[in-house]
Amino acid sequence: MVGEVLDVMKELAESGMTMVVVTHEMGFAKEVGSRVIFMDEGVIKEENTPAEFFANPQNPRLKEFLSKVLM
């Protein structure tokens, strides 16, 4: 079911629909997002393009989070 929902959301994004999505699906965020935001305790800690966000995270909490979810 999750995959089907993500497929529909990807189609909507490709059609030009603007969306704000909260997810732990990092592959989806990387593939579909135009901007990725990392929040910790309700505070924006980092915002960037998906390429820069995943390849060159600056915030220590983001680095820790990505190291755990992108194994």
Question: What's the layout of helices and strands?
Answer:
Elements: H1 2-14, H2 26-32, E1 36-40, E2 43-48, H3 50-55, H4 60-69
Antiparallel strand pairs: 1-2
Structure description:
With 71 residues, this protein is an alpha+beta fold. The chain has one domain. The two termini are 23 Å apart. The model has no long low-confidence stretch (mean pLDDT 94). It has a two-stranded antiparallel sheet with strand order 1-2. The protein contains four helices and two strands. The chain is 51% helix and 15% strand. It has helices at 2-14, 26-32, 50-55, 60-69, and strands at residues 36-40, 43-48. The longest helix has 13 residues, at 2-14.
> Over all CA atoms, what is the radius of gyration?
13 Å
What global shape is seen? globular
Low-confidence stretches: none
Given the structure, what is the number of helices? 4
What is the domain total for the residues? 1
- Summarize the amount of helix as a percent range: 40-55%
Report the order of strands and helices.
HHEEHH
Helix and strand content put the structural class at alpha+beta
Instruction: Kindly estimate the percentage of residues that lie in beta strands according to DSSP.
Output: 15-25%
Tell me about the largest β-sheet: 2 strands, antiparallel
- Average pLDDT rating: 94
- Total count of strands: 2
Question: Within the largest sheet, what's the order of strands?
Answer: 1-2
The span between the termini is 23 Å
